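Please check this one:

***
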Amino acid sequence: MKAKGILLLSAVCFVLMLGGCGTKDVTSYDQNTLTIGKDGTIKEVSVENFADGNYNMQELEQFVSSEISTYNQTAGGERITLVELNTDNKLAKLQLNYASMEDYNQFNRKDYSLQSFADSALSGSLADVSGQTEVAVSEIEDKGYQVLKVSDAMELAFEGKPLYYNSYVTVSNGVYSSNGEGVAVVVFK
């Protein structure tokens, strides 16, 4: 009974902390990753280490599927889909697709933001993608840009092209990462 309780608690934590890119297979991820589609859809891969405990993948998949089903019924349509659940070297990897950031936020109890540059109310300065130049937000010409704001540590990917980011984002080998120490901001087209 204790093992089932631990399993359920782990599954709940796994679903609540959820953090895919294009066509990459879920097994190629080793960190939580949030991908923003040009159409506002969200693809997410969550990675959870289960090396210290026993878990049943079938029960975990049933639990996640049930949570998604409940959300979709309440939302009145298929707003979230389970793409893949896999284990790889004691890591459970889950890919979910969300119809919108609003669905992502409601399902995960988050307060992230995906909005137009015009509606973002950004101020201060941002680094351009080269990382060499700081640009005042007031000097950025809005050409239909989008702004992503997240507060947790995770990798970030974009179907569009990132243009600017703040100090809570690092870039290494073309991979954008939110450090979780503040609100990470990425402006992209």
